[in-house]
Amino acid sequence: MHITAYTANDRNRRHHANARSRPALLFKRSDDRLEPYDEARHGTFDEFGEPRDSSSLAAKPEPGTERAADVPTGEAVMEFLLENYLEDFLNSNWPLIDWGRPLEIYDNGAGHQFSTPVGRLDFLCRDRSTGALVAVELKRGRPTDRVIGQLARYMGWLRQHLAAPGQSVEGIIVAHDIDPKLQYAATAVPGTTVMAYEVAFRLIDNTLAPPANPSSPPPWPPPTTSE
Length: 227
Description:
By secondary structure, this protein is an alpha/beta fold. It has 2 domains: 2-71, no CATH class; 81-196, 3-Layer(aba) Sandwich (Trna Endonuclease, Chain: A, domain 1), CATH 3.40.1350. 25% of the residues lie in helices and 18% in strands. The protein is built from 6 helices and 8 strands. The strands form 2 sheets. Strands 3, 4, 5, 6, 7 and 8 form a 6-stranded mixed beta sheet that branches. A two-stranded antiparallel sheet has the order 1-2.
């Protein structure tokens, strides 16, 4: 809890009102390891762990500590931005999301950011129709092998420590772009489903319509209205 509260880019800082008003001490890399927070190198974050500007997205750890493929650049940065807010969107609009099955967040909402000894799960859910426990993990631009490994780890822990005898444990990975590597890897973890989300963005013309007869000047003086 204290590590979360003092990690500059941990979005769960929002739950620790006392600590988030103090200077951050740690920075979480894309491989989930922590290092001392350096504002000049990592960028700036607000009290909720959100980047204040785009430079924070491109912050890199010391050379050799992270693979270049793990650093979001170009279109990957845009995907990162979308998925950075995807979790909050899902949590706020859960009843409106079509999961293809009646999923509810475990224990009246306590399943959001569900903490286990092997990591923090994005969403722990229960299928109301089958009673299955369902682990939902957001890809967030992470390498396929890592997100599959994390989901498998959570599902294994749930089977061992939380599921009742005979209760099924399943998993869902939510991603913006689905590649064949992710699809093939998911087949190796029984009970895992891969779901893609789409974002619809439209521009609507709100220009004021011209007068019906532009050649006619408006009446002057303006007509008066009677009480």
